[in-house]
Amino acid sequence: MSYEDKVLPELLPMLKNNPKLDLKKDLEEIRNFKLPQLKKSDDVITTSRMIKGSESELLVKIYEPKKKTAAKLPAIFWIHGGGYILGHPDGDDSLCESFVEKINCVVFSIDYRLAPEHPYPAAIEDCYAGLKWAVNNADEFNIDASRIAIAGASAGGGLTAALALMVRDRGEIKVAFQAPLYPMIDDRNETPSSHEINEENLPTAWNREANIIAWNMYLGKYASGDVPIYAAPARAADLSGLPPAYTFIGQLDPFRDETIKYVARLAQAGVPVEFHLYPGCFHGFDSIFNDVEISRLARTEFINALARALNCR
User: Fold this and answer.
1) Buried b vs exposed e over 286-300: b needs ≥16 C-beta within 10 Å?
2) For this structure, is 283 an active site residue?
3) pLDDT given for residue 122 in this prediction
4) Residue 154 known to be catalytic
5) Which residues of the chain have a pLDDT value below 50?
6) Which CATH class is domain 3-309?
7) pTM
């Protein structure tokens, strides 16, 4: 059986429409790719704010319910994906709007600096600065600082896991929940799934070859030395004291095994964790631009978990 035969039939059009691109040659082309436009929500107000980061000003997009009461709302700090080298908050507008609509919360989405122009630790320091700004400005946005979740997908999931570690270790602020979705957390690329999902088997999905290129761009000078845990959270020896977690991943994702191992280690460290593995699904199958049953299911289960964690249901 070929790997394409293992993919759920409803996901095959998405897989076949994905272009096969060389990250070393086509990075600027991929960055400039225009995503489909989805209808804006009439119930969500979106604004942008420039804030002070550790080394530069940072864009934060803020999504709020149009109809607000005096009650304080929970918040989600969202981190977009893109292998640490791609992506922008604009690509997740519809997803962030859905958080607001279904959870009745405020969402902050950070435009962190990208590698290779800005290698580690630029992205994680930007995320920490953005989260700290959101916490420190809780009163302005009428949010409950004790009900803030951090979440992201792929590289955003890796940054979520790293941010949870950094928040724990620095001790300046707190988060109530973390959702590192199919996270990019292990630069070593040693797991069976990392070898299994490769360019030959799934050339138009995120695969081993793309992952190695992206990690080398992100790590920069750290690529050939000791890699810090805030760059690759799978390297962290101690996962105790982290907030409760939720994650999911497709069975045909190169991050499958590193995620399963991380979930097990969280549980062993006493961290409450919920995990879903979706057969027949490749990396990023849950894209909001992919409106099929399995994608809707994964998004719904994730949003329900966020709502439960933030005491909204």
Assistant:
1) bbbebebebbeebbe
2) yes
3) 98
4) yes
5) none
6) alpha beta
7) 0.97
